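Table S4 entry, S1 motif domain-containing protein.
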Amino acid sequence: MKRHNDENPTAPSTKKYKSRWDVGPNDVENEVLCLGVYPKSDIETRKKIQPNSDIERKRIQPKTDIERKITQPAAKIQPNSDVERKRIQPKSDIERKITEPKTDIEKKKIQPKNDAQQKYKDHSGQASWEIHEVLADSYGVPLSACKKFTSLIKEDCTLPFIARYRKEMVGNLDIEVLRKMKSSLEDLQKVQGKIASVVKTLEKQQVLTPSLNETICNIKDIDELEFCYAPFKDTKKKTLAAKALELGLEAPALALLEGVKHVSIETLLNVDVEGLDSMKSVELGIQHVIADVIGKNKENVDKLSQLITRADVRLCITKSRSADKQNPSDLSKFESYIDKTFSVGSPDNPIKPHLFLAISRGEDLKILSLKIVFPEHVESDWIKFCENKYSKQDSKRSDFRKIIITKSIKDAYTRIVEPLIKRRIKARLTEKSHHASVDVFAKNLKSLLLSPPLPNTTVLGLDPGFKHGCKCAAVSPNGVVLHTETIYIRFGDRDLVRQPAATSLKNMVQKYGCSTVAIGNGTACRETEDFLSLLIEKGVFKPIDVRFTIINECGASIYSCSPEAKEEFPQLEPNVISAISIARRLQDPLTEYVRISPRHIGIGMYQHDISIKQLEAALDDIVSECVSFVGVDINSCPPHVLSKVAGLSCNKAKKIIDYRTKHGQFTNRQQILDVPTLGPVTFQQCAGFLTIPETSLASSCDSSDQKPTKPSKGSRGKKAVCLSTNPLDRTCIHPESYDLAKTIIDLFGGNLEEIGHESFIRKLQVFLATKSSGQIALQLEETEGKIEQILQSLSQPLRYDLRTKFDKPLFKRSVTSLADIKVGQELRGRINNVTDFGAFVDIGVGKDALLHSSRMKGKKESLSVTNQIYVKVLSIDVSQQRISLELI
């Protein structure tokens, strides 16, 4: 056995383990050491002369305190007097000119010699791409619109404000597109932050080079960034390659991969060291190092990704080994997925998001086993690519090298690259499915929140139950609780009409005039519905004509136990509060549904499998959008609704309520500026969505008697606000456009005080019949979008509510059982939920029927929650309680 020394590059190193990214003086001088990360020039500049022994280290260090003092730099001499200070400073302009560089050549000498290093230093950690450029490419939106959108978001502008008052600036995009762009913007901001963090970490490790910095700063995906950063992470778990590196096999492995020097396995043997005690173990260690380098090379990984995009990747589902140990009811739900395969790689027919979410849930429950399968040619094509790539580096045509490289390439594919790509595919499918689930939930929530209110109606809310009784609550049109009671219905009795529960219901209906009953869709809903239908049929409530409807009670029990509910109803039990919530949901869905967290409303698609943070972030935007676009009366709006207005928060809403309590009702929007902590930015975002209806103006004092109010203590620097009324405050026109609105009103001879009245609207319609919005914009030198927004606001009647154009609840006076319907029968139903695969429709049989997307006749996009539609029954499965429908 040959003696190990520094002159033999193939000998195992006895030094402390050093990463192959840190190149020392005895390492192989070749760019393959960094393999796509460092060029040769960077390796050479990074070489440092290290002391070879403890003796040399001692020689370098000073031995005594005297030597240390000698080695320390001398202290700077400070001028002791004004005379000395003057001597140091130049006496005249001539002396100043002498001290300055005379020519451009001298100026260049002062600048850094390496411009590339200076440029790298200045731009290190900054992404080489702009967010608005990426958004423009992703959504096909003009670059100028994306740039303006990103700047508006940076200025803390809300989506409702942008969609209504800055729509032309962002290319007239719908708020749904803006919401997706905002989500992408936040993701890209995270990538930029991660880039800065990674670059800073690599700088501390002293492994960052201009080429690596350029690679990192060009990345736009967080997963790709993690892959690029992975080789530099300090992990506690040692990989096979890391163990081989500790044995000193890095230099011979990289020399073998490069093919520039002969490597002898015999010289690496050491019977006293585990891992070097046999030819096989040494060869395996070298293979692990080479496989690690090949498997983590970006070019090689990108090649496999490229091959995958053109291949038919399949998702194979099998029954897991522990499936029989799980809940039998859960097992039956996923039996239809067992031994099925789905296409993943095909862009024309990819796996549907709802299918992948269902499969993922089955995998989480340990019922299903998911496996991604590549075609056989993918592996062979990738191995061939790598063999051709690394065979060119073999100058000596060694058979031993060829065998080792081939084994390493196959090992890299099986152990590193293939699992990596499969994880990426699964992560991409998961992300896509989660986004689809959030989009479905958001669309359904928006439709539910925009359900038409039921004004001027006293509602009797029923929260059904068996053992604990049916909770009842009579609620006035203003939401005031008139009466609460718990009745116990004996559903098995023959004579239901003579029960005490029937008498109690009759008394509540007749005493409080409850012609409308709202029944929660929870436990005992169908039985309570039958009971109420029988009482109506027998004429128990006459002369009052009673009707009823089913209300989604999801989240009602959660709200009834919340601190807000206890504060409003301190004397009532939570069960009774849920009945109040059911009644209010029918009277004003928007006001009541915003009380609870949106994720508790059961109108989504696998929403419980989604990250709570991701779901709530999207749904909170929907709630704010709906509340803002509907508009709220600042003088009567409750705090939980006011806090959802664009630009406001819970704290700011409380400040407005406190100001309203102390100073009385608001008479104009400018008073908002006098509320403590509400500055111009908040006013700009929320003012257009806070209205002061005519009733509020009429109840306030006459404008001639009003005097400006003094600024409150918390409004430092604010001017006194005038209390005079402004009819434009009744509309959704923003205060910044009031002067323009008055000019338009003058054009058609309208009276500002008559805004919202029929005479005013007729004058405007006559004017618009002769002049278009484009002509008005040209005449006034304003944008057409702003003119259209003002004209639309002026053409709306007083107390206009955009929710009135949506379908109202479906009221019934009798019930239909599953046995009453037949195949081919045409019915009217109400959509309760919409998913990717279809819609669930309430047709009055106590069980939602499925309207599959293939039976919607191309109208899927136009259907939403609360829509009333006409359907035809296709099939009935009594045993499974399933009904299939077709849209008429």
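Confidence is low (pLDDT under 50) at residues 1-123, 699-707, 713-717.
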